[in-house]
Amino acid sequence: MGSSTQLRERQRISGDPALVDRALDLIAAAKRPIVIGGRWGAWSKAAATLRAFVENAGIPFYTTPISRGLIPEDHPLSHVHARSTAFREAELGLCVWDPAQLHNFARSSASI
Predict the structure, then answer these.
(1) One-letter-per-residue 3-state SS of the chain
(2) Would 10 be classed as within a structural domain?
(3) Residue 56 binned pLDDT confidence (cut-offs 50, 70, 90)
(4) If 90 and its partner were Cys, which of 34, 42, 65, 80 is the partner (CB 3.0–4.6 Å)?
(5) Number of domains in the chain
(6) Which of 19-23, 41-45, 82-86, 106-110 has the lowest mean pLDDT?
(7) pLDDT number for residue 25
């Protein structure tokens, strides 16, 4: 056993394959999706994965203050300074690492 002061690596949890497929279908069908990155992203060491997903999918993103820097704020797909507009205009919000943002998106989205 290691020292109690050592940080432990946590095992990554995989999503239900059927739900992941459904999410991919929704993303593919959406005309105005947005990725909403949150606080857990800052701790998950997955910034490169998030950036690759956003860039490969061509989906605009918004990051919460604690997760700023996961993708540079000057990135062409960034909506970091236009949250209310981005949420209002998006028809699908993919909340990554912050379930609280789902509530904020639903409350401000005109399409829900």
Answers:
(1) CCCCCCCCCCCCCCCCHHHHHHHHHHHHHCCCEEEEECHHHHHHCCHHHHHHHHHHHCCCEEECHHHCCCCCCCCCCECCCCHHHHHHHCCEEEEECCHHHHHHHHHHCCCC
(2) no
(3) very high
(4) 34
(5) 1
(6) 106-110
(7) 93
